[in-house]
Design goal:
heterodimer, A: alpha/beta, Rossmann fold, seven-stranded mixed sheet, five-stranded mixed sheet, B: alpha/beta, five-stranded parallel sheet, two-stranded antiparallel ribbon, 13 helices
Chain lengths: 341, 321
């Protein structure tokens, strides 16, 4: 166990799996960087340095810089997965998935079902998401609900460095296509992470704290912010359970429902834009399965329905924060059914 | 040409099987018993067979909307194929794929594709697998003149070249992308497009089995020996509409009759081998009869085969959940 960043945890997960299994390869735009250039042959390690050093250990046969050509290389990763390799493709920013979505949702996601169960597609697509980088509308989106919508894909949202390593190793060993979302604002978050490889199963939520009054379900980066809000609320005498589902597909619906049944109140925090996101999905789940347990209406904390703005002051308002979560929790606590005469 | 008598008989049998399969589907579709969309390959048999005769089980292919011919040429059994098109449980994809997604991974047939231009990127991946595993495998991307205009195809040409992948790109140009002419929709030339990426390309008469066979042998050996990708631009004709039920009002009067009378790949094959006394007409007639029987049996089997059950609906979405 030692202190590691979210970035290091991901790098270690890839390296350990590439050492363990020669079929694991990595491809993407500048995953090494410097291919064909006169300068540094491991120039970048991805645009934010997450895969730095891997080309030095594994060579350009297994760490492939690609052209800026997402349809071709994401499709190639799907084809390689269907024929015996275990590729990790990096789609730099999830915002770029529009140009290669066919290869993900019509090809990779459907091989197994469409081919009568005879195909396996052990593909991992790693991608960056999230606002807070002053990167504006085309580099800041949280498109995980779109992938969650597609049967055949598994969708993973690690909220910490520890989870990032364990969930990524799990993803690489999984025989289905997995979309692995890395929050670009979290890469420098540091915490204790074991040195040795370990896995975290998909579909098992993590309770980052347990309380009696309100259940907060939060995704990805929002888990930390939800815990920050819960710390403040604790001091005011309100105790919260914070549920990190870790994966949106599969989704641990049992744990969410059990927590709601215990606390009777639910706040869902989702950084994705508010129409048809995880918050609306879970809200519907709880309304259908645990309506009777609710002591107050469900509260959803999401950004407004707008593209992500550039101006830093606007972006700060856009991103859900601890203040908004605190307010939502208090609203749930203070709700009273109006007495009818 | 280096074809043995056995090779010639086999080539004819496979082409005839594809033709009979497609002609029969045309009739059965009209009777209303086949669900969904069916896109027929009849008229293009020389391409699938002339190319796939050079492939082994380690080699992969990705197909198009018109996938039955490639499937048969790659060695997939006709019986489960027919069952699949009828949506039966014993179909090659368990009734989950249908005509547009017919596939048999174990035979290296990575699927017909419901998405025009969907196959070339996948074939780059299959070729990458062959290269990394070092098994001397080759991968073939079939696509039409319509698919040639998709960015995926152009991106794949580039990727194949820069990674020196063992790929044969085959543009099966039947002159129509759905109901729009290639002469209208394709700018420049297929061969020059390939050459623009540094990939050698050649135009081949798509109705001439022997010309295709020779060109494919050269290209596939080149790829197998580490020489990288190449392209064949085959000019051929489809005998039916884009899909079954298509009234083909966009085609010239008499166009298909002329294709059948003057350019049919099976007739040309038959004339060539009998005139050169390589095979006897009665041998080919015997194959015709055997193939008709095989297709009859497949249709009878498919119609009687059980449907998938409700439990099959949720099976195989994931390997495990």
């Amino acid at each position: 166990m030692s202190k590691k960043s979210y970035r290091q945890a991901i790098n270690e997960a890839i390296a350990s799996e590439m050492r363990r299994d020669p079929r694991v390869i990595l491809m993407g735009e500048d995953v090494a960087g410097g291919a064909g250039t006169p300068g540094d042959q491991d120039a970048w390690g991805g645009v934010l340095g997450v895969t730095k050093g891997l080309v030095t250990e594994f060579g350009r046969e297994r760490v492939l810089d690609t052209p800026l050509s997402e349809s071709a290389y994401v499709g190639a990763a799907a084809g390689a997965a269907a024929t015996g390799l275990r590729p990790i493709a990096e789609l730099m920013f999830v915002d770029f998935m529009g140009v290669c979505f066919d290869q993900i949702f019509n090809q990779a996601a459907k091989f197994r079902y469409m081919f009568g169960g005879k195909a396996e597609t052990p593909l991992v697509i790693r991608t960056m998401y999230g606002a807070g980088f002053r990167a504006a509308s085309q580099h800041s989106q949280c498109l995980y609900p779109i992938f969650t919508h597609i049967p055949g894909l598994k969708v993973v949202l690690p909220s910490s460095a520890y989870d990032a390593k364990g969930l990524l190793i799990q993803a690489i060993r999984d025989n289905d296509p997995v979309i692995f979302f890395e929050n670009k604002v979290q890469y420098d978050d540091i915490e204790d992470v074991p040195d040795e490889p370990y896995t975290i199963p998909f579909g098992e939520a993590n309770l980052t704290r347990e309380g009696d009054d309100v259940t907060i379900v939060a995704f990805g980066r929002m888990v930390k912010i939800a815990n920050e809000a819960a710390d403040r609320l604790e001091k005011q005498g309100i105790s919260c359970t914070v549920v990190d589902p870790r994966t949106t597909s599969p989704l641990d619906t049992d744990t969410i429902l059990e927590c709601v049944e215990q606390t009777g109140r639910l706040v869902i925090v989702d950084e994705a834009s508010p129409r048809c996101n995880m918050a609306t999905d879970i809200s519907a789940l709880v309304a259908q399965e645990a309506f009777g347990a609710l002591k107050a209406p469900i509260k959803m904390v999401s950004p407004p329905h707008t593209p992500v703005p550039f101006a830093p002051n606007l972006e700060d308002i856009y991103i859900p924060n601890a203040d908004r979560i605190e307010k939502a929790v208090k609203a749930a606590m203070n709700y009273r059914v109006r007495e009818t005469v | 040409m280096q074809l043995s008598r056995g090779d010639l008989l086999s080539a004819y049998r496979t082409m005839r099987t594809i033709r009979a399969f497609e002609e029969r589907l045309h009739l059965e579709f009209a009777s209303g018993e086949i669900p969904g969309f069916v896109h027929l390959y009849a008229g293009e048999e020389a391409s699938a067979v002339g190319i796939c005769m050079h492939l082994t089980e380690v080699d992969k292919l990705a197909s198009t909307h018109r996938g039955h011919g490639h499937c048969i040429a790659k060695g997939v059994d006709v019986l489960p194929m027919m069952s699949e098109i009828y949506g039966r449980k014993d179909g090659v994809c368990g009734g989950k794929g249908g005509s547009m997604h017919i596939a048999e991974i174990s035979k290296g047939m990575l699927g017909a594709n419901g998405i025009v231009g969907g196959g070339p990127p996948l074939i780059c991946g299959a070729a990458l697998t062959a290269k990394i595993l070092g098994n001397r495998g080759v991968a073939v991307a079939f696509y039409g003149d319509g698919g040639s205009n998709q960015g995926t195809t152009l991106e794949s040409l580039n990727l194949a070249k820069i990674w020196n992948l063992p790929i044969l790109f085959v543009c099966e140009d039947n002159g129509y992308a759905e109901a729009t002419a290639a002469s209208y929709a394709v700018g420049g030339s297929q061969v020059k497009r390939a050459e623009g990426f540094g990939i050698p390309g050649v135009v081949v008469d798509g109705n001439d089995f022997f010309a295709i066979y020779d060109a494919a042998r050269e290209a596939i050996e080149h790829a197998r020996n580490g020489g990288g990708p190449s392209l064949l631009h085959l000019k051929l004709g489809r005998y039916y509409g884009h899909f079954e039920g298509d009234a083909t009002t966009y085609r010239a009067p008499g166009e298909v009759d002329r294709l059948r009378a003057e350019h049919d790949c099976l007739k040309r094959f038959r004339n060539r081998v009998t005139e050169a006394s390589l095979l006897e007409a009665h041998e080919l007639d015997a194959i015709d009869g055997e193939v008709e029987k095989l297709i009859d049996d497949a249709v009878v089997h498919a119609k009687a085969a059980p449907l998938p059950t409700e439990a099959d609906l949720l099976a195989d979405v994931y390997v495990s959940y």
